[in-house]
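Q: May I have one protein plus its fold?
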Amino acid sequence: MTADWVDGLGRYVEKKPLAILGFTQGEWLALTSSRRGRSEFTFAREHVEFELLKPQSLCLLMGASEDGESRLYIGQVHSKKAITTIQTRIKITNHARLWPNSLREIEGLLTKTIHIAKFKGIIADLGAGCRTLTPKLGRHIIEVLANIDRNASPLNGAYLSIAPPDNRPPNYGFQKNAISTALKIFGLPANSEAYKLDIANQSESALSRVSILEDAVIEHEARFVDGYDLIGSDVTGRAVFLGNDGKLEVYTANRRELEHCLGVDLIYLNITKKNIVMLQYKMLEYSGKDDDDWIYRPDAQLDKEIRRMKVFSQTNTPLPQEYRINPAVFFLKFVKRDAYSQGGSMITPLDHYEQIVQSPECKGPRGGIRISYKSLSGRYLRPGAFMDLVGSGYIGAYAETTAGFKALIDAVLVDNQAVVAAIQHPVEDR
């Protein structure tokens, strides 16, 4: 996979040239302390600075920490727009830390004389400016940066952000959506920066796109070891996020036993509220302009997954003062094919799904079962409502059931598909 994504990035910067964007220390510190930090920000400069910069192009960001030490990052130009008579505004997303720390150090890594001369001239007068590289120079820089082991995760993340859906790992879309769902349940934006981030070497984890807080970078560097395998060979990534309600640990993992045991794609365990929910993702296919609907047709695979879920669907007695609107653990989330990040999904508890498939509205013209927006007529949970209910502890297993699942998680986080597990801890467990 490594050669594939490096070649993919190289071909991309040949079409949309790589840029270098420099910042003063004051500008960078202001961005760092903004609401979304460097993970997503807008910035305006005179038109001439961004004249050659193309929307969706990748860029190297050159900033400086509080102590004045240089820092190198990679990001993507999400949008570009003239906002005044003299200024253009750009929006940068998908930011991630790179090594080495400076452009001068990159110069020392270049191997072709023609590229060294061009690059030296570009960085000599960069300052707080923007320079667009030639296609061949941009590709050469991507290749030398990819030779540094610790850049595998951020550069792979950059590739995943620009790769066509067919070139992404089969589980990337759902992993990205599941991570976003977990963060929103926890009360954080989907593009939040992690306090800690570990990605298994050459991993295809969607956590590759997560950036790390500036004040955690030193600790992150100190923990880096070439070929680090994380917690075990099946765990592909781990990120820790801090919030007002404690900390959230998000794991991505290959799943062998989980596939045979639970048949789910996202596990959200809230230790604070003592509830747990598990989501199984299913793809809605577009029915065509005549019908203009999105449809899922249940198959034998879903039947197997439901049987696995029901083995663990027993409900224990609630503790005194413990209340749930619905103590169901298992939910189905129907999302439009290749549209994970564009909303429009439908969520239903497993027991409600089993009622739905018996209704006449879900029978197709040939007698088959079909789940769609029209057949459900609004009888489903929207993502926002679902996340609020999980976060407040109003849905999910009772505490006793949750404790049993908690004991299982370590044993089952070990097929060819992937799982996302998010574990919320109380404040004192930070």
Summary: Residues 215-233, 256-260, 413-417 have pLDDT under 50 and may be disordered. The two ends are 35 Å apart (CA to CA). Residues 181 and 387 are 7 Å apart (CA to CA). The chain is about 30% helix and 25% strand.
